[in-house]
Structure formats: structure tokens, C-alpha cells
Specification:
By secondary structure, the chain is an alpha+beta fold. It has a single domain, classed as 2,3-Dihydroxybiphenyl 1,2-Dioxygenase, domain 1 (Roll), CATH 3.10.180. Helix content is 16%, strand content 35%. It is built from five helices and 16 strands. An eight-stranded mixed sheet has the order 2-3-4-1-13-16-15-14. An eight-stranded mixed sheet has the order 6-7-8-5-9-12-11-10, with helices on one face. The N and C termini lie far apart (46 Å).
Length: 310
């Protein structure tokens, strides 16, 4: 079977306050806290995973909430916008809900004939709620306040900002298998042909855009989905052959990953579907307990004293 990149796996962003971040994405946005763990490189910092019931790849937004970190700003060499798919006719619900929860008032726009409601989360992260032109049959996580008729289905797209389109396009189309679908102004749309949803990467070419500052309210990296470790290592070899620096395979407990920085400056990750978030918690209680990487388990009491109160 041909090796394939199956759209987006997850997106990881930075927040400045753990409790505020947790409350906004679970209570206001109605996502499920799928996993509560810590940053592998900084165990005094939480790592939250938000998604649908099981944390299906393509629905997972994760955060490093570094307490008190300065506010960042978007720019070239970054993923600048996260697009969530929502049901047709639900944007007014979201405008009213977000407004009633104190979120800054958003704006409407249309891109590639799809209607967006655009707002910023409490840290300033740019979120687009999108009514997709095609079907999205993914089952959402619903709450008492966010029903099936409005709940986010998972990612619609992600937008990258780069100075020069060509080198980034070469990675997307030549290595990751994306296909150019169209252009609108300075934005080029690429889609994975292998999946229906979480399949779009929009690239904004902005030669004069300053570089961003990667801190609170910005995206840290985006991860693409592959089936298994064999596929992961196949793509690792192809990327290495292009002369790009890439990490060894890393065990992230819930998936295996490699990381590389594409020529435009955006940090890319490839992540496997296996083993998934139920490897250490049953489906019905995902996110209920603090789960530590094995190397930190002996320091659990110390780490729990350092972590912010939720």
C-alpha cells in the first residue's frame, strides 16, 4: 500500500494560564479534555489535549500553558490560524455564545466560498469557525450548553504564513502528498486527497510580513497524521533525503513522532495514529487523572506541588 499522510493529526499552541485555558476550551467551546499530562521537556508545565470523545486525530488541539509567559504575536514562519468545522447555520449561535462569555467580538468573512466566524481565544489565538462546503460526518463531543447542532466536528484547516510560497509548497505537494486546490488573493489552498476532513492547509504568501513571536496566543507546531511507525519512518527518510534536519522517532506515549522545520519556518510534526489516548485510561474517563510520562512518575508528588491549581 502506498504510504499516505492523512491530513492533520493535532495542533499545539501556547497559553499563559492553565485554568483559564482549561475553562475556555471545555466550558465555552465544549471540547472534551482528552488527556491531562505534562510537557515532556518541562514537567512543571501542563500539557492539555482537547478533542472529541476519543481524541480522534484531526480533532486534537493541545496546549502548553506556561504560566505568566508574555503574549506572542503572529507573523511569517508560523501557523497563524486554526479552522474548526461547524454545522451549517451554527455561526450565529457561536457569535452569541462567545459574546456572552466575554470573548472579544469576532468578525465574519468568506474564503473559498465558505463562511467563517473569526475570533480570538483569551490568549489571542486566532480561531476560525467554518461552515465547510462539503459534508462532515464526524461525531462531536457535546455538552449541556453546546449541542449536536452546533458543536465543532474537529479541524477544518490550518493557515501558514510564509515569505515565499515555493519552498513550502514543495514540501506539501512533493513529500506530504497535498494537492493544490485553488488560490484566492495571496492564499493558496492545499488538500490531502486521502481524507475528507481535517484535510486542508492554507498557505499565505506574505513577503513583507515580519517574523512572529512564539509565546502565549500563538501556535507552537502542527502535526500531520500517518497510520503507523512504518509510515512515519518512510516519510522521515524522504524528508532527510531533501536535506532538512529531522529528529529521530520520539515516543510521545499516545503517538510516535518526528519533527522538522519546513523551509518557510513552520515547525512540522508527523504523528502516528497508534497507540491512542486509551492506552492508559478507559474511554469513559479520559482526561480525569493527571498522567505522567514514565520517566517522571517517581517525581509525581514533587510535580503536583509545582503544577498550577486548576
Amino acid at each position: 500500500m502506498e504510504k499516505e499522510v492523512l491530513g492533520l493529526h493535532h495542533i499545539t499552541a501556547i497559553a499563559g494560564n492553565a485554568k483559564q485555558n482549561l475553562d475556555f476550551y471545555t466550558r465555552v467551546m465544549g471540547l472534551r479534555l482528552v488527556k491531562k499530562t505534562v510537557n515532556f521537556d518541562d514537567p512543571g508545565t501542563f500539557h492539555f489535549y482537547f478533542g472529541n470523545e476519543s481524541g480522534t486525530p484531526g480533532t486534537i488541539l493541545t496546549f502548553f500553558p506556561w504560566e505568566g509567559i508574555r503574549k506572542g504575536y503572529i507573523g511569517a514562519g508560523m501557523a497563524t490560524e486554526i479552522g474548526y468545522s461547524v454545522p451549517k447555520g451554527s455561526l450565529e449561535f457561536w457569535e452569541n455564545r462567545l459574546g456572552s462569555q466575554g470573548t472579544l467580538k469576532g468578525t465574519y468573512l468568506e474564503r473559498f466560498s465558505e463562511k467563517h466566524y473569526v475570533f480570538q481565544d483569551p490568549d489571542g489565538l486566532h480561531i476560525h469557525l467554518v461552515e465547510p462546503s462539503g459534508p462532515d460526518q464526524r461525531t462531536p463531543w457535546v455538552t449541556d450548553e453546546v449541542s449536536q447542532s452546533a458543536a465543532t466536528r474537529g479541524f477544518h484547516s490550518v493557515t501558514l504564513a510564509v515569505h515565499r510560497l515555493g519552498p513550502t509548497e514543495k514540501i506539501l505537494t512533493g513529500i506530504l502528498g497535498y494537492v493544490l486546490e485553488g488560490k484566492e488573493g495571496n492564499i493558496s489552498r492545499y488538500r490531502s486527497p486521502w481524507v475528507e476532513n481535517a484535510s486542508i492547509v492554507d498557505v499565505m504568501e506574505a513577503p513583507n510580513l515580519p517574523r512572529g513571536l512564539n509565546a502565549a496566543g500563538t501556535n507552537h507546531h502542527i502535526a500531520f497524521r500517518v497510520k503507523d511507525e512504518e509510515t512515519l519512518m518512510y516519510f522521515r527518510s524522504r524528508i532527510e533525503e531533501m536535506g532538512l534536519g529531522i529528529t529521530p522517532k520520539i515516543d510521545r506515549d499516545y503517538f510516535f513522532s518526528v519533527y522538522f522545520r519546513e523551509p518557510g519556518g513552520v515547525l512540522f510534526e508527523l504523528a502516528t495514529e497508534n497507540p491512542g489516548f486509551t492506552r492508559d485510561e478507559p474511554l469513559e474517563s479520559l482526561g480525569g487523572q493527571l498522567k505522567l510520562p514514565s520517566q517522571y512518575e517517581a517525581r509525581r508528588e514533587e510535580i503536583m506541588r509545582v503544577l498550577p491549581q486548576l
